[in-house]
Amino acid sequence: MKIRARFGRAALLTALMALGLAGRAEAKPIKIGVLTDISGLQSDNTGRGSVVAAEMAAEEAGLVLGQKVEVISADHQNKPDIGASIANRWLDQEGVNVIADLPTSSIALAVQEIVRRKRGINIVSGGASVALVREACSPYGFLWTYSTYTQAHGVGDAMVASGADTWYFIQADYAFGEAMATDLRKAVEARGGKVLGVSKHPQTTQDFSSYLIKAQASGAKAIALLNAGQDTTTAIKQANEFGLVDGGQRIATFIFLIPDAKALGLAVAKGLVVMNGFYWQQSVDGEAWSRRFAQRFGRMPTSTQIGVYSAIRHYLKAVKAVGSDDRDKIVEKMRELPVEDAFVSAGRVRSDGVMLHDMLLEEVKSPSESKEEWDVFKILKRIDGETAFGPVQGCATAQ
Q1: 360: closest CA among 296, 398, 306, 320?
Q2: Predicted local confidence at residue 19, as pLDDT
């Protein structure tokens, strides 16, 4: 009897251990997908730096729901069909919980619709089109770092106020360019300015000469480069070669980050007025985080890269608070919790998915003003989030 009892207890213990091991084997990690531009025109501003930022947020969070946080990434190659294919695979087959970064607005818009119909959440840091929180808004979609509205009104208002009341647009011919042009035209005309002409160009243009000649001939006081990344830096270089700035015309850029200033050189970029959501010297916490990032990645973060960190950190904080991976409860909690981190102080998520935070109107420093390698901007003005992002327009997280 004693032998049978011992055997029975041993068998029961073995069975319980097996069940425990099976339960642990079935546990799935919280999976973050960073869908970004790793090889194209926006790779310096997003790309692998965004992946590193997401990894830093995951490491900081530790275990979530008793599980590890896994970060995976993919290059959408600036092609909406490739971005959509990756998003579908991640959601359907690989158990991705949230998709982040999403530079190139056309891809962000495509992925947001996929996420709405399926099971995930998407948080856009690299993309900027306000359509994401207007006509294409989703209860499961967030716009974290900036928007075409913030960029148009921040730079546009400042330049018109300083006398640039006539404009010529050189515009990227895709979703971001269209949204940027719409918001900038409204900003310029609201202050009594006028748009004299528009030229549209394809993505990854190498020769801007025909567009610049038209802009020069228009006599516009300001030439707006409604593009991003390498397209912007190429256009600025060629504008200088054509003598537009020496001739009295001003160049206005709307997505211009630290790598862009470095690529151009301060001697060429000095004096450009830009709008950003973050600069590494803006606060003690921001600088400390940026230096940790630089130790891993080799350079200071862009606003879009630290935006990915902030977005993932906030998402994981909401998951912990909810205590499950129920996406409806998570997005509700994300809108409820304040956003406090190295990126922003006193941020909050609005009903339409915009993360409201202060924006920075900046100017590119001259070489003599720069004190170290990544010291490229000086902050001219801090604009509060309510003003910078504008009012909610036509979206209240409708299903």
Answers
A1: 306
A2: 47
